UniProtKB/TrEMBL annotation:
Entry-linked CDD domains: HP_PGM_like
Pfam families registered for this protein in UniProt: His_Phos_1
Designated name of the protein: Broad specificity phosphatase PhoE
GO cellular component: cytoplasm
Organism: Gordonia humi
SUPFAM superfamilies, sorted: Phosphoglycerate mutase-like (SSF53254)
GO MF annotation, one: phosphatase activity
């Protein structure tokens, strides 16, 4: 039985979500995000002796998190980039750009995204990618990771809250409109474990973040 460890990316700067203008060499993570990724690597190194395969989406915050996690491991398998693990594009589904003030107001930003996601799922609004296409590529990416996990391998996947919870929603048969609720409380650099066996994928643990929740350290963030 193989295991897939799904890590949400660490804290990312505002430009990662379409707020403001990013320069070509802008980092994928904040300084805190890099530390979150490093701590998740230490956690995982205490759980598995090594990873047989490592995968991330193509987004800078995902690639940088994988590098931070794998700093705790030696040897390190080749980093495979699979863009099907990318998050949906907020700027694609939200009508107009998100200004800095709205992004800074967590409740206002969440309301904006929730409304946009509901319309996107219903097909009321469409962008470069439909909700059905997004769900299908998540399924395909998970199957490729399961194939790598095989009957006894450990696979690391770094993705985003939306895509990780999209997979969980599929495995738990959560209706599409209920999927966004799963991602709201996902912690940056949290760890979710899925096992791959004869009956397919099964969820073992979700959103593990105790390694980031030590009192007074301020390590736990949500975006």
């Amino acid at each position: 039985m193989g295991a897939i460890y799904l890590v949400r990316h660490g804290q990312a700067p505002a430009h990662a979500y379409g707020v403001g203008t990013a320069t070509g060499d802008a980092p994928g993570l904040t300084d805190l995000g890099f530390e979150q990724a490093r701590r998740s690597g230490v956690l995982l190194a205490g759980m598995v002796p090594a990873f047989d395969a490592t995968i991330s989406g193509a987004l800078p915050r995902q690639r940088a998190t994988l590098q931070g996690v794998m700093a705790a491991f030696d040897p390190r398998p080749e980093h495979v980039v699979d863009a099907d693990w990318d998050e949906y594009s907020v700027s694609d589904i939200v009508a107009g750009s998100v200004d800095a003030a709205t992004y800074a107001d967590r409740a206002a930003y969440q309301r904006l995204v929730d409304t946009a996601l509901s319309d996107w799922i219903d097909g009321t609004t469409t962008g470069d990618e439909s909700y059905a296409e997004y769900a299908a590529r998540t399924t395909a990416a998970a199957q490729r990771a399961a194939d790598l996990a095989g009957s006894g391998a450990n696979v690391l996947v770094v993705s985003s809250a939306g895509t990780i919870t999209q997979l969980l929603a599929q495995l738990w048969q959560v209706p599409p409109q209920g999927w966004p609720t799963l991602s709201r409380a996902f912690v940056n650099a949290s760890v979710t474990k899925v096992i791959s066996g004869k009956r397919g994928l099964s969820v073992v643990s979700v959103n593990e973040h105790a390694h980031l929740a030590r009192r007074g350290e301020g390590m736990m963030t949500y975006r």
